[in-house]
Design a protein that fits this description.
Length: 291
């Protein structure tokens, strides 16, 4: 398939482009928004594909300008190919305005936030959760050794969770901001930590990030909120929690050296499942099969 891809300056957007190429599709990645150029290049492709479509959803001042630009492109009658997007974001605030505008003009839309999709009646929107960007097996490195580790940004309700873990585990708990961490370093952090943790916020029953797939793909044990829609088996592929007390009990259980074998078995099963069914490549195969 020939694909014209509007690439956002985000890691997930770059990872999706790599996955499309890995599947054998011819991908022309567009980094600058030029409507005339995009229309011209779209004449020879099967699909115009995008994630956020170069819309700035972090700034209200730039949001309407960049959204209007995308809307104008999608509504252009000269754009004859299929118009398809895969939105990785939680649909709140400005992102809700994005989806309500873009869904009108797109042929197909795929949402990581299936909670929002279930609450709204769009016939052209489908659920598709993100997958692992990489399944590189991590290696133990002394500098990353910890009992408990978290890779992610700290904001909102996450602040109190992180402060509680700091108080409980001290230097045995390590925090890594995601910006600048390569896939190799990410995998090594997962392999060098007894457990990796995911906060409850902002996940809900049918929305979560691809952190769980990335951690499992690297061979780590993930302690993750127990969600109704999650396509992994609690206790087999990952370990789920529903309360703070349960969260701490699980951490204490798996950092105990006596439970190392159990920890390794779950991590191994989780990695196997992700490699088989939960990579970006497998998700994109599903996406393309629906077109």
């Amino acid at each position: 398939m020939k694909i014209l891809y509007l690439r956002d300056e985000t890691k997930i957007s770059e990872d999706i482009e790599k996955a499309l190429r890995k599947l054998g599709h011819k991908v022309d990645g567009i980094k600058e928004f030029d409507e005339k150029e995009i229309i011209e290049k779209a004449k020879g492709v099967d699909m115009l594909f995008f994630t956020r479509g170069m819309v700035d959803t972090s700034s209200s001042s730039n949001f309407q300008i960049t959204l209007s630009r995308l809307q104008k492109l999608l509504s252009n009658p000269e754009l004859k190919c299929k118009k398809v997007f895969w939105l990785p974001d939680n649909i709140i605030w400005l992102v809700e305005g994005w989806i309500e505008t873009v869904a009108i003009w797109a042929d197909y839309g795929f949402l990581n936030d299936d909670t929002w999709r279930r609450r709204h009646g769009y016939d052209n929107l489908f659920p598709l959760h993100l997958g692992a960007s990489s399944t590189k097996q991590g290696k133990y490195r002394k500098e990353y050794e910890s009992d408990v580790a978290f890779i992610g940004n700290i904001y909102g309700p996450r602040v109190s969770l992180v402060e509680g873990l700091k108080k409980m585990y001290g230097d045995r708990f390590k925090i890594y901001p995601p910006k600048g961490i390569s896939d190799e370093n990410f995998a090594d952090i997962c392999a060098s930590s007894k457990v990796m943790i995911a906060p409850r916020f902002p996940a809900d029953e049918f929305y979560w990030t691809n952190d769980i797939y990335n951690v499992l793909g690297a061979g780590g044990l993930m302690i993750h909120p127990r969600l109704y829609g999650l396509d992994l088996e609690d206790g087999k592929h990952y370990v789920g929690y529903s309360s703070w007390d349960e969260f701490l009990d699980i951490i204490n259980h798996f950092i105990n050296p006596e439970n190392e074998k159990e920890r390794e078995e779950i991590a191994k099963a989780g990695r196997k499942e992700v490699i088989k069914n939960c990579t970006l490549e497998s998700r994109l195969k599903e996406l393309i099969s629906r077109l």
